[in-house]
Amino acid sequence: MFRLLLRRLRPLRGLSVGSKRSSSGLPPPLPAARVRSRFLDYFQQKHGHLLVPSGPVRPRGDASLLFVNAGMNQFKPIFLGTVDPRSEMAAYTRVVNSQKCVRAGGKHNDLEDVGRDVYHHTFFEMLGNWSFGDYFKEEACLMAWTLLTEHYGIPVDRLYVSYFAGDAASGLSADEETRQIWLDIGVPTGRLLPFGLKENFWEMGDSGPCGPCTEIHYDHIGGRDAAALVNANSPDVVEIWNLVFMQYNREVDQSLRLLPQFSVDTGMGLERLVSVLQGRRSNYDTDLFIPLLDAIHQRSGVGPYGGRIGTADEEKVDMAYRVVADHIRTLTVCIADGVHPGMSGAELVLRRILRRAVRFCAEVLKAPQGALASLVPTVTQILGDVYPELHREADRIVDIINENEAHFLSSLQHGSRLILRTLRRMDNKHGVFPASVAWSLHRDLGFPLDLVDIMLEERGVQVDHQELGRLISEYQNQQVVSELKSGQSPVMLDILSLAELQRIRVPHTDDSLKYKYNLQQDRYVFPECCASVVALYDGHSLVSEVSEGQRCGVILDRTCFYSEQGGQSHDRGYITRDGLQDVLFPVEAAILVGGYVVHQVTASDSLKTRDKVQLHLDQVHRLACMVKHTATHILNFALRMVLGPSVQQRGSHVSADRLRFDFSAKDSLSISQLQQVESCVNGIISANHIVHSQELPLQSARSIMGLRTVDEVYPDPVRVVSVAVPVSELLDDQAVRQTSVELCCGTHLLQTGAIKDLVIVSEKQLVKGIIRIIAVTGCDATRAREAGQLLSQDVDSLAARLSGSTSSCLDSAQRLAKEVGVLFDAVDNTPVPQWQRRELQSRLRALQRSSNTAVRKLESREAAVRAQALLEKNSRKLLLVYSVDMDSESVLMKTVNQLSTLSPHSYVMLLAHQRHSGKVLCACQVPKGSASLSASDWAVAVCRHLGGSAGGSILVARGTGKSSDITEVVRWAEAFARQKTNNDVIKPL
Fold this sequence. Notes:
Layout: H1 2-13, H2 32-46, E1 50-51, H3 76-80, E2 94-102, E3 123-132, H4 137-151, E4 159-164, H5 176-185, E5 192-195, H6 197-200, E6 201-203, E7 208-219, E8 237-250, E9 256-269, H7 270-277, H8 290-299, H9 317-336, H10 345-364, H11 376-383, H12 389-392, H13 394-425, E10 432-433, H14 435-445, H15 449-457, E11 462-463, H16 465-485, H17 495-503, E12 518-520, E13 523-525, E14 529-537, E15 542-543, E16 545-546, E17 551-556, E18 573-577, E19 580-593, E20 596-602, E21 607-608, E22 612-617, H18 619-643, E23 649-654, E24 659-664, H19 671-686, E25 691-696, H20 698-702, E26 718-723, H21 727-732, E27 741-743, E28 758-767, E29 770-777, H22 778-804, H23 810-829, H24 834-873, E30 879-884, H25 889-902, E31 907-914, E32 919-925, H26 935-945, E33 949-952, E34 956-962, H27 966-980
Parallel strand pairs: 1-2, 4-5, 10-11, 30-31
Antiparallel strand pairs: 2-3, 3-9, 4-7, 6-7, 7-8, 8-9, 12-13, 14-15, 14-17, 14-22, 16-21, 17-20, 18-19, 18-22, 19-20, 23-24, 24-29, 25-26, 26-27, 28-29, 31-32, 32-34, 33-34
């Protein structure tokens, strides 16, 4: 199939593919799927590596990343030494995989480069092999060279190798060991090139594991000495494989210390390797992209893809092809992994990717709406065999892309109208466009800034870019400040301190007491805990003592505190020291790091290693968390019972006051579904079922039918939590039991009755396809139900007064309408059952429509009376400027409309003076076809004279200002109108 595609496209691209080794010396082209599988098989079968599936593109518990951007991301806990020693990952020594990666946003951001050249991508696959304390430089280099030259058949004379040349300023010598290894393998001296820190020293971040790297580069042309083009940004000589040797730790003070365990981390982009093996200079000319480019062409209104770049691609058609092909891959993979277009973080980046793709589709490729989403099946056909989640989620991905495209197109229309309205209001039509409006369009509507520039350029206007830059910088600074205010960072053990704990044989913390509580006469009894201080960490290193006021991490031989994990908040409480019982050391956080529970405290007195301490658990807080955690499991089960088995958990958080649960669903829940979910949960609560838990080998636990898991690295053995059915029965049963059963390390109730009640107080779509529920339990649930009943009674009372009201008094009707608004706010913001909130909101919307209609009718009636009285009192003239006694801006505007209807050739302005505040309401209307004076110009001039502002259209406008002399304002408004109309308005009709 691949060769048929190439044959069909040969006239277009001038490609030639032979069935045997070509004249370039390259082997026959391998399909991308075979390239990937050959890599994995080589390390798995020939070198004993464990094949680990790709992690999702959303990082697991790593707030420093928006997306997984390298193959090593999922193995960071191993490199940092924080891996749970009971997990399968802790036993990894040799690993191979193909990892889904996204580089868009953050430190590694290729978004704006995509499409401009033929090798940048936002989504790509990273082939990699790792050694964690097993083999090192020699084996890694030999394995890589053998795979490339013997198994893939890449000619040796096309390859160049770089290595670390050393850095005197950092005190690092050249990596002569690696250089010698390559020489021994047979790499000629002229093809073995030294480079500095920037090219050949890899760092995870500002601090942490790092080390020299060696890179293998490929010359697309061959038959020459291309050494000078290595690392010279030449498209002809490209890096294909990076081998990183993790042997140092970068300290916070930027010094380097040797790691206790050396590791190897290698990465090779699949797309680039495939282009090499298929003899293509462009990644887009391989079978990973050709089917996509063909599919795009079928949906476009332009010619086929031609592979042009730069000035040769004058209309940017080929750039658009590449952008859309790349971005639809990214969208498909991200949405399948639970990242949806949204308003912050990774979701915001994905929204920009989607909107960039939509623009290129519509503006350059002339493709109809829906074309982008229709490419999803082609992506799943190319990648779905190795990433089966793409097939499972295909329909949902299409729906999400289509809905977001529709929203974007609507935003473009709305933004365009706002730009035109702003231009009409500007005094100088060829001046500078307000940066605040441009920034609001971009920030709130997602309107591309470059599109703002294009629209304004067509009208001879430009944005104040200096002010726009200031607004963007201010916004970014606010984001940074917000992050800094979010709380102090926890005291985390670094890799060297963890290694030191292991070297001096400090045992992992025994935290089994956190589960050893029981029920006695319907009351939970938690165990006492006495412990010894085995280590103290001051934020930089292990110390033997901390003094009063010092913030530190306390590691004990045992603890009863639950450390934050699995979405459950850490325990609260305090520590006391033997002999100093009246001095409390409050525990600010409890964090599990590499098998050690670190109790974060600010010392109230001195504390030393070997001190004996007692731990005092905040039992009320713990029990509240247990209630919410068990309720979360039951809620998860109830959602599947009501909505079906397609419901997938996408996140959760359990705290003492409420629970939060995110899950996948096509649409928001209806009132009936919300009621059914609550009923199902409360039925299980009322039954007071026993909550069973048992520790099992991970493999055995995964064999349980109906087991719910989330994307986490689980310990082995793992804890299984089941409601009503003993775990041992579930192990023996081959059928799916209708009960809640999950892998979970959290603390749970022993019986469901302690939850007492559960109320869903919020349910909303975070983004298309992801729903967030917030629920409360116990007394909070009771209070929510009571608040719902009171609000329901208030709505009943208001509805009765509205239906029985026959008042012709405008003030009375406005008071009732205001009451509807106040009650609407109360219903929106009071914790009540969400199903009841929806019902009350629906009723209030109907009451609002009814009360607003009544108010409008009475306002129109009063306006008609006022207008008639004004015309009877004053002769009909072309200029009608009056001061009126009126509080309602709406009635004022309607009166102006009535006057203009009765006297259609007149220029009408009414000014209402609020004597108690000095505020002046202004409304005006001009005749149709008025060339000399527009309503907006008139209102803006008068209101600026009053120190206020105004806006509107050519025919109608309104505004406000302040004055103590309304007579002077009337004279000024008349004079302005006469001047603009050359005194024509003085003439009577």
